[in-house]
Amino acid sequence: MARFRCFFFRHSLMIFIILYITRFCVCVATSSNHVIKKRDEAFECFNCSEESTELCQTKGNITACGKGTNTCFTQIRYHGGTYKVKKIVKSCILRPSCEEKMAQSTNEKCQQKENDFDCTTCCYKELCNKDAGTLKITSNQILTTSMVVFTIIFHFHVLR
To answer: Which CATH number fits the domain that encloses residue 85?
Structure first.
């Protein structure tokens, strides 16, 4: 019986390593889009101005930024009492302008305006603001979580 447990333990460890390497390869492959660009192509950011993150994701679009612009911007206005999203704006912005908006914030990235809070983030990779403000779960997160759960369950089952 001990040999049987040892055999399954080794195999489950090998399966975990293979799945982890596969997940890493998928991450590298999926994160490389928009990295290789021609010199004449413009920097791109996600663009929207809506009352909710859901509307922003569905009605928003990818936009080419102006020449010299290489910063994406997200600003979310939260209602002061309920902290629900009142407005979300995503666009291209010049880096100094974005950093100035963030510097005006009193609490890390958020600034109180009347009863509301404006939270600003700047990012410097193409389309880096597309999922900002959302709770989107990626396939990589699902794969990693399932690998960990599988390993824990398998080890408890084999080592019982």
So the answer is: 2.10.60
